[in-house]
């Protein structure tokens, strides 16, 4: 949709002006989408509140906060108040496609808390021929890649590589992107030439297990000069042209945040939306807010963990879930077969990342579970965990890159082993080392 000089991309939940992404919160985006869909009519306050906070009891001033955010972005006169009733857009609106898409996305299985990531990533994939979207298991790499907008006048193809383990499987999957899936061995050179010459974006999703095999394939694709490639993977390709986008967890509100403000944070927004998906009566109210924020904090804003936790709320309640955080690796699980095996529990997700590590990376990571967290390099040296400093820094770098350790710069740079990872690593130490 064209709104004045702005472009609104509902499915991608992205707002642009003169081609540049504009930072906008998820709620403000949803309000704008409803206003645009109603244009030139007024959108009633009740309609806006239901569309933007589905199932939640929120006060009217939350809507006013979003309207004033929008006025800052679009201009003071861009939204007229119809006193006592609602709001109306004062900008020209041209619609291409489905004007209500954004509202439906917000209420359904849409992307939460990633507007800024989506805008930045869209920019990167336009500028760089090869972008790697990296981050730990279940952090939302594939979800973000799925919401990238279709490049204007270019093709977009997505290939899921999760089940590929060898080059033959990889080439078959790529042939599928061209609808050229044959029964025999694909002609590698012809296939890569064809794909490489297509202007557009090729998304190679879930490439963890074939990242190394992908290196020569991607080099060959890029040599043809047209296609841009986005790879989602925990394991980097380490190619010269590679631009890495490190996805971080969803933002978690600090304790004591008000309900209206807390819902601006992706982690809480996702937890509330998924909890409502499991029971339409669920409402995030002030009495459960503190527990909900604590749950998001304990789960480190990890989308997969939040989704699994939301599914347990009908059986345990928010407070009951919090009491079971020591057993989170198994409590946060689902029996649904439609979910990939690596995402059926928090344990499975961490085990997948662990299995991708080399033996010395695994050993060092488990050792860090013996230290108090956060810890510094000096702490690691003091317990004899860093005999070869150069190699240790390499290993730590990989663990940070894979989302298995967090590195914070500051007066004393330090590493944090998150609680879920700590539980897993301690379990390994117990079974393998007997420690
Ligand atoms: N921002 C988000 N909003 C809503 N749902 C999300 C978001 N991020 C992730 N999810 C959901 O969380 C789950 C895990 O996300 P996703 O599969 O994208 O993670 P991933 O990083 O690709 O994991 P893996 O490393 O296992 O491939 C999925 O069900 C996904 O739909
Ligand atoms: Mg994925």
TrEMBL record:
Residues 1-91 bind DNA. Residues 1-91 form the OmpR/PhoB-type domain. CDD domains: trans_reg_C. It holds the Pfam family AAA_22. Keywords: DNA-binding. Gene3D superfamilies: P-loop containing nucleotide triphosphate hydrolases, Winged helix-like DNA-binding domain superfamily/Winged helix DNA-binding domain. PANTHER family: HTH-TYPE TRANSCRIPTIONAL REGULATOR RV0890C-RELATED, REGULATOR-RELATED. This is Winged helix-turn-helix domain-containing protein. It comes from Pseudoduganella chitinolytica.
């Amino acid at each position: 949709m064209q709104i004045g000089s702005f472009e609104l991309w509902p499915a991608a939940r992205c707002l642009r002006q003169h081609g540049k992404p504009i930072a906008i919160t998820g709620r403000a985006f949803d309000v704008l989408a409803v206003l645009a869909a109603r244009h030139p009519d007024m959108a009633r306050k009740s309609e806006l509140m239901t569309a933007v906070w589905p199932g939640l009891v929120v006060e009217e001033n939350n809507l006013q906060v979003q309207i004033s955010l929008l006025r800052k972005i679009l201009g003071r006169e861009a939204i007229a108040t119809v006193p006592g009733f609602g709001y109306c857009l004062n900008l020209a609106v041209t619609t291409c496609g489905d004007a209500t898409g954004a509202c439906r996305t917000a209420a359904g299985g849409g992307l939460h808390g990633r507007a800024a990531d989506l805008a930045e990533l869209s920019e990167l994939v336009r500028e760089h021929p090869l972008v790697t979207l990296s981050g730990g298991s279940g952090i939302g790499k594939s979800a973000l890649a799925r919401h990238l907008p279709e490049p204007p006048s270019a093709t977009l193809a997505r290939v899921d590589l999760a089940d590929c383990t060898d080059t033959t499987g990889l080439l078959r999957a790529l042939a599928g992107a061209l609808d050229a899936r044959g029964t025999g061995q694909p002609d590698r050179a012809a296939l890569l030439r064809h794909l490489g010459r297509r202007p557009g974006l090729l998304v190679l999703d879930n490439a963890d297990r074939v990242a190394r095999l992908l290196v020569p394939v991607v080099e060959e694709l890029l040599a043809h000069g047209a296609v841009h490639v986005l790879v989602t993977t925990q394991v980097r390709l380490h190619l010269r042209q590679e631009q890495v986008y490190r996805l971080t967890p969803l933002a978690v509100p600090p304790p004591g945040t008000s309900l209206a403000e807390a819902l601006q944070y992706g982690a809480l927004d996702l937890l509330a939306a998924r909890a409502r998906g499991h029971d339409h009566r669920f409402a995030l109210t002030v009495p459960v807010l503190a527990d909900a924020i604590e749950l998001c904090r304990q789960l480190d804003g990890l989308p997969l963990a939040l989704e699994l936790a939301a599914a347990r709320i009908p059986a345990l309640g928010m407070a009951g879930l919090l009491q079971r955080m020591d057993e989170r690796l198994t409590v946060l699980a689902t029996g649904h077969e439609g979910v990939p095996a690596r995402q059926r529990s928090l344990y499975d997700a961490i085990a997948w990342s662990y299995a991708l590590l080399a033996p010395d990376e695994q050993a060092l990571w488990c050792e860090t579970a013996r230290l108090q967290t956060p810890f510094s390099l000096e702490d690691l040296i003091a317990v004899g965990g860093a005999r070869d400093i150069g190699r240790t820094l390499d290993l730590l770098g990989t663990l940070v890159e894979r989302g298995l350790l967090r590195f914070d710069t500051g007066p004393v740079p330090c590493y944090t082993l998150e609680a879920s990872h700590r539980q897993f690593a301690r379990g390994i130490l117990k079974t393998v080392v007997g420690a």
